[in-house]
Amino acid sequence: MKVGLVGLGRMGRAIYARLTEQGCEVVAWDKSPEAMKAAQERQMRTVSSPREAAAFGEVVISSITEDDGVRTTYRGKDGFLAGDVKGKLFVEMSTLQPMTGRELAPEVAAKGAALIDSPVFGTIPHVLQGKLYAMVGGRAEDLERARPVLSKLAGKIAHMGPNGAGYAMKLAVNLGLAAFIQATAESLALGTREGLKLDQMLDILAEAPTANGWFAAKKGALKGEPADVTLDLKTLRKDVMSMVATGALDGTSMPLSTAVLTSISAAVAGGWGDRDIGDLALFFREHMGQRFS
């Protein structure tokens, strides 16, 4: 199977490694010269544009940060749709607004190709072990065409509905995560202000009804210890912005998401955007309190 890959961030590099390890031929491209140089230093096969990636691949995967970047990847003068893509299958794995999937799908179909949205949840180890969870929007027959490649990356694949449905499910998942991170940050800030010991609080919260796998994995970051970045705060902020924008479009009230967006935006504005989402708790303790004496 020949695969074209666009996006060489943390997830994109892991996708490349997993697919090549599983026997796929992969070529890759990223808009960042630094990312391209790093890829070439790792002996990764690269091309000079999304158009070339699409020309190479039977399946073309993109993993890009935000909606406008994806639109440019498809519509740009050297984008996917600038060349002959008849018969190609595009698998868009970014976390985007549902309207973006609904917008691009007919443009791709008009060129004789097919598009599914397939955002995932999981971290880099999940990619490398083929244990992501893929939430797919698009035609069932296109998902079946994608399955031989997707199954190398994802242990579970759920067909959510038409184009855009995968993105809607991913935003719903990340909404819960963002709200939990915010609640945890406030819990720890409140408790430490009241004189509770941070380590003891974390031990008790790990046994509370709200305990989950993310909390267990991030206890070090929640204490303020250095941690590997699995998802940075500026990307989570983008996702929450997408939640609020999607809610505004379809008439869904989003008061919690709006409040969480305000909090994460403060951390990004404070220079914490490249730090892991678990670091929001430390930011809250250090910068969001008020002293009265």
Describe this structure in words.
This protein is an alpha/beta fold and 293 residues long. It folds into two domains: 161 residues, 3-Layer(aba) Sandwich (Rossmann fold); 120 residues, N-(1-d-carboxylethyl)-l-norvaline Dehydrogenase, domain 2. It is built from 14 helices and eight strands. The protein has a five-stranded parallel beta sheet with strand order 2-1-3-4-5, sandwiched between helices. Helix 7 links the parallel strand 7 and strand 8. Helix 8 crosses helix 14 and helix 12 packs antiparallel against helix 13.
Total count of domains:
2
Which outline best applies?
A: elongated
Termini gap: 66 Å
CATH class of the largest domain: Alpha Beta
State the helical fraction: 40-55%
Number of strands: 8
Mean pLDDT: 96
What name does the CATH topology of the largest domain carry? Rossmann fold
**Biggest beta sheet attributes:** 5 strands, parallel
- The structure class reads alpha/beta
> Which band does the percent of strand residues land in?
5-15%
Q: Measured on Cα atoms, how large is the radius of gyration?
A: 20 Å
Instruction: Examine the secondary-structure arrangement and name the CATH architecture of the largest domain.
Output: 3-Layer(aba) Sandwich
Q: Helix and strand succession?
A: EHEHHEHEHEEHEHEHHHHHHH
- SS element count, helices: 14
